[in-house]
Amino acid sequence: MPDRRAMLLCMDPSPSAPAGASADMLRPFSPPEQHIPRLRRALLDWFAVNQRRLPWRVNYTPYEVWVSEVMLQQTQMERGVDYFNRWMARFPDIAALAAADEEAVLRQWEGLGYYSRARHLLAAARKIVAEHGGVFPSDLEAIRALPGVGPYTAGAIASIAFGEKLPCVDANVERVIARVFDVDSPVKQDPAAGVVRRWALRLVPEGRAREHNQAMMELGALICRKKPRCEVCPLAEFCISRHLGIAEQRPVPGKRAVIKPVQAVTGVLRRAGLVFVQKRPPSGVWGNLWEFPGGRVEPGESPEAAVVREFMEETAFAVRVAETFGIIRHGYTTYRLTLHCFGLDLAAAGQTPAAQLTAATECRWVRPADLEALAMPAAHRKLADRLFAGKNQ
Ligand code: SF4
Prior knowledge:
Blueprint: H1 4-8, H2 23-26, H3 36-50, H4 62-72, H5 77-90, H6 94-98, H7 102-109, H8 115-132, H9 140-144, H10 151-161, H11 171-180, H12 192-203, H13 209-222, H14 240-244, E1 260-271, E2 274-279, E3 290-291, E4 294-296, H15 303-315, E5 319-332, E6 335-346, E7 362-366, H16 378-388
Parallel strand pairs: 1-6
Antiparallel strand pairs: 1-2, 1-4, 2-3, 2-7, 5-6
Helix pairs in contact: 3-13, 4-5, 4-10, 7-8, 10-13, 11-12, 11-13
Pfam families: EndIII_4Fe-2S (PF10576), HHH (PF00633), HhH-GPD (PF00730), NUDIX_4 (PF14815)
Catalytic activity: Hydrolyzes free adenine bases from 7,8-dihydro-8-oxoguanine:adenine mismatched double-stranded DNA, leaving an apurinic site
EC number: 3.2.2.31
């Protein structure tokens, strides 16, 4: 195995190494290009043989690359492929997506979370139709100008769909670079974030951006995982942290997000075979999704009391608890939700009063079977399925 100095010959983030970078990052090695062509070749050769067959890797259309990148930002590959295939069956091209209504788009996205991404996809498709004649723009600036397209997604589309010499730096790539080049401070923060970005760019070979970027991501997903499989890694020869025996200490973790537990309630109010649902406001979490009303349990409050209070506050309905449907647990962003679920009746018999909505833009009494067509947050969908799925109501 080569010694550390020999390995470090390829470490040269200059000329723009940031202030505060570690001594190793800044050491002036030369010639910096010595190992890079071999590293690129080893990576591309590995990818040619080991890449997974994925539906967006058949034609590499910008639309497919875009949708797949947005979907995969928060979900596992297997699940992402299922969602992608269903999405493409429903919205096979930009024109079909642009012509869809938001309800259908949110329903298709349901379960992936981060619903603003689905709304942005729709808005961007409409912009492409309105301003680019329905043809996905190839110019980086025009790609960045699309709603919801940040630097990562723009780089992914420009490089993977159009072959632009740009890097894609997702968490997999961060991990690979942090290990190969022994980046010794948290990669989400500068100076390390800048070092990773510059290495990512520098490694992209002329004319092979598509394969190279995907190979980096694939290596991170399949080989350079949290527990690295260095023994079968095509970059083992070049990897400084492996050479130093510290691969599992890279990347250096940053501050962990604190997961906050949330106790909440929701109630299924029924009347004459119909159930009450309301539509959340467009902004904020679960914007424009349909839900059973409810909210957080206040300190010292019982879940039963909370659901009665929430209904009064959100709809002005006086309700009483008729049934207990148990608990649904669901994690989203940095929250761990414990949702207490109830079946409710109106407290007073007689004519149903009109709802006075304070936390929604719209409400409906629907047949349970009609819930299937509404986009709902995942926990509410779980409840609806638990109560009504397969019961022909
Ligand atoms: S040698 Fe190990 S640590 Fe280095 S890139 Fe490969 S899998 Fe990751």
